[in-house]
Amino acid sequence: MIEITNLTKSYNGKTKAVDSINLSIDRGEIFGFLGPNGAGKTTTLKMITGIIDIDGGQVKINGVDNQKNPIDAKKQFGYVPDSPDMFLRLKGIEYINFMADIYDVPTDERKGKIEKLAKVFDMNSALGDQIQSYSHGMRQKIVIMGALIHDPEVWILDEPLTGLDPKSSFSLKEMMRQHADSGKTVFFSTHVLEVAEKICDRVAIINKGKILFCGTIEEMREHFKANESLEKMFLELTEDE
Fold this sequence. Notes:
With about 240 residues, this protein is an alpha/beta fold. The protein folds into two domains: about 1-75 and about 155-165 and about 175-240, Rossmann fold; about 85-150, no CATH class. It has helices at about 40-50, 70-75, 90-100, 105-120, 135-150, 165-180, 195-200, 215-225, 230-240, and strands at about 1-10, 15-25, 30-35, 55-60, 65, 75-80, 155-160, 185-190, 200-205, 210-215. The strands form two sheets. Strands 6-7-8-3-9-10 form a six-stranded mixed beta sheet, with helices on both faces. The chain has a four-stranded antiparallel beta sheet with strand order 2-1-4-5. Helix 3 (about 90-100) runs parallel beside helix 5 (about 135-150). The longest helix has 16 residues, at about 165-180. It is globular and about 50 Å long.
């Protein structure tokens, strides 16, 4: 569960990238965070995860305040950033073991988890290679594997499907659904509206740092009093901002 209260971030003391937003992402749901590029999605996720400082407001992950108890808060989630270009000199298996070390995954449990994730994402043959030799899609896969190696209760994913091949994309969406159906939390950002329409239980639309809508797709359709496509509704929400 993620509770966001009056979350605010400004740059240069003037430009509000995130403007006092409030959201509650429950256990057992896939929550989509929608918005055009530059809307404030990544800034919000980086404040939730503690990567950048919060100017104002509060974030709690499973009841743990990420400013008062940052280490305990970080133990609650797995995070996939918006760029997979990191630790490029490590081999894939070294990166996975590094992430497992950070989250205290017992050695006797790792092998099975790594094998399972590598099979899902078709990465077995690449684990011995350096990440810098990977394609963008392979780097995305290894970062996802690293984020999930400790079986986090909360998944925070920033554009997680970008660069994935169709099979891996389908597998990840299935995993997201299974994770939520087991009573856990998935919070992911996307600008691919069709994805949100198909898999999200609820969505929020952000533009220029403000939440313009939060609810189910059905509620959004009712809001516009017409059975229109999500894309058309999305454009209508953001065009005048």
